[in-house]
UniProtKB/TrEMBL annotation:
Catalytic machinery residues: 333 (proton acceptor), 407 (proton donor)
Protein's UniProt name: M1 family metallopeptidase
Record organism: Chitinophaga eiseniae
InterPro entries: Aminopeptidase_N-like_N, Aminopeptidase_N-like_N_sf, M1_LTA4H, Peptidase_M1_dom, Peptidase_M4/M1_CTD_sf
Chain ranges of the Peptidase M1 membrane alanine aminopeptidase domain: 263-467
Keywords: Metal-binding, Signal, Zinc
Amino acid sequence: MRGITMLCIVLLATLASSAQEHFTRADSLRGNINAPQRVWWDVIHYDLHVTVNTEDSTFSGFNTITYKVLKPDTLLQIDLQTPMVIDSVIQDKKSLPVTRDGNAWFIRLSSPQTKDKKKQLTVFYSGKPRVAKNAPWDGGIVWAKDEKGRPWIASAVQGIGASIWWPNKDVQSDEPEAMTINVTVPNELVDVSNGRLKKTIENGDGTHTYVWQVNNPINNYDVAVNIGNYIEMKDSYSGEGGKLELGYWVLDYNEEKAKEHFQVVKPMLKCFEYWFGKYPFYQDSYKLVETPFLGMEHQSAVAYGNKFKMGYKGTDLSGTGWGLKWDFLIIHESGHEWFGNSITSKDLADMWIHESFTNYSETLFTECQYGLKAANEYLQGIRKNIKNDVPIIAPYGVNAEGSGDMYYKGANMIHNIRQIMENDEAFRQMLRGLNKTFYHQTVTTKEIEQFMSNAVGMDLSKVFDQYLRHTTVPTLEYRFKGQQVQYRWVTDVKDFNMPVKVKLSDNGYKLIYPGTLWRSSSVTLTNMKDFEVDKNFYIHTKQVQ
């Protein structure tokens, strides 16, 4: 997702903390994925048309929504945020009455809505979309200028929602099976959106329209406009799904920089396909698009704004040195193609599914390039960014995000599970299995937890509970009694039972199985002071008498 800084972590923590204290009707209207006006219809296709006026920063257009009727109803909710407005709604050539409740618009349908039938609805809209205050964390539309003073415009709306700039069913649980994105801009500018460029239409009025076709399910916040003086560099990659077309869209004066810097893409794709399975969007290609903000995981059109630097804006988030050997934004945001874009959480509260696995993709890329030792060091280094402030999973149904710890702490939780498995090939197959089982699907935390428990052969529910739903870190208390070491877990979760590796002999680490009551193992270390816990586990330890 959004590139990670301490600002991001603090912002997410503040939002999560305040969100848990108070929720409004507007929060429920936006976040309730089971609302009656949403659940009776299933989005099949969006045909979005938008004209971007660079003179007055307005958007206008229409979205034709094809949907399947799951059960008959007459009231349908569409989301569009102020100051944007819905001008009219048409179905079967009839104008329909619309009422508004904040950012939710309720459409009263007059045509028969017959179960299992497909229907179309066209929503016309216009206005000045919210300007991003600090994209991508406080999002909206970015209106910028490039180094030559020319317009450079982009969308960045994760969390705050795609309904910032276009009307849709703004929940993650219902993705269209495909989408067409038509963006009209002045002749001197180029639009880059998701999927493949189907055609460019010359309108004869000083504008032209770029028509992009997305051939896979796509979540709303991934739908993007990127408008500027772009040039495209084409390449291809031979991967698990055959030939993958690569497109690098950068400002015209950055072509040479990009040629050199983007060489990391192919080894990255090779690494991620090894660990996660085939790239999920071969039909739609892989693109990197230079943007006036830091970055976002826009599906098949990854937003890139790291200014061709290594690390995160030239810094190493791990403090180990390994994070400066690759471009953080390319690696992290591309990792989201598997976790976040192909596998998408139904509720924003479960965003750890996106961020924890994608954060761990940084560790896996480090391993692919520099070996396991380097990867472990990087993973342990990022722990310094963990806040343990509020739970990683937020309240459901109110469009709330949990703690920013979903990045670093979530990745360390996954690494814990890898250590428990003691079999890197089995761990790899679990990650690939996740992407095969939930390919192009929306999911819940429960589904991911159950899948991983089955793959590990152990009920991991207490591990997930402790790391995702509590703020404290499990503490392993231990004490020595003669040639024995006694140990127990001190945690929030009753009967917490995570295995952990410790050094009990001179032969290295071995899994032990602590509970919340004292247990013991024999120790054959030459020096009892050499007893230690494997640093690959993110836990606290405390020796007691």
